[in-house]
Description:
Blueprint: E1 7-10, E2 19-22, E3 26-27, E4 31-34, E5 38-40, E6 52-54, E7 62-64, E8 86-93, E9 96-103, E10 107-108, H1 147-152
Antiparallel strand pairs: 1-2, 3-10, 4-9, 5-7, 6-7, 8-9
Amino acid sequence: MLHHPSVYTTTENVVHGTGVKSRVFHTRGAFIGFYSGKLLQPCASHPGKDRRFEVAGTNGHMIMANSQDDVMGFVNEPPLGCVSNLVAIPLHLDLGNAVGYFVCVDELPAHTEMWVHYGDTFERDYVVGEPGDDPDDIQRADAVVPQRTMLSERYRFMAPRCSGYRGAPVRRLTRGARRDYPNRCD
């Protein structure tokens, strides 16, 4: 499990289709989970663009949620007039780069739908709310997901760093479409 144990998917009282909620209260900066799924090679054409996330600091690798176990792939965008309560932050880990979802509001009550803004370059045919502000401090992922799980599941949430990548502070990612990031190694 590459997410907080309290997190679950549901179709009840969500913005669209399937959404994600938590059984417990979370505070600003809390780690919720890794975006996980199948690791896609750079520049490959794959269906399901709305379920994939490009990982910063790689040569264009993407991770595509492709099963019910990839819970964070079901987080919806905020509806018009609302602000996201999660933010996606690139993480530079020892074994590779990943995308972590963190709480970006002061309080996230239990059983509240989680929303993340997919980014301004994400191609959509609907109107959405606004992105939230990045938290000043974030919780370590290994405080929630055991290291042994991160090691055994690493190919489901981590992409190889490109050579020369120094972990530049890329604070925002977009899902789907390719985008130029500082220190990309194309």
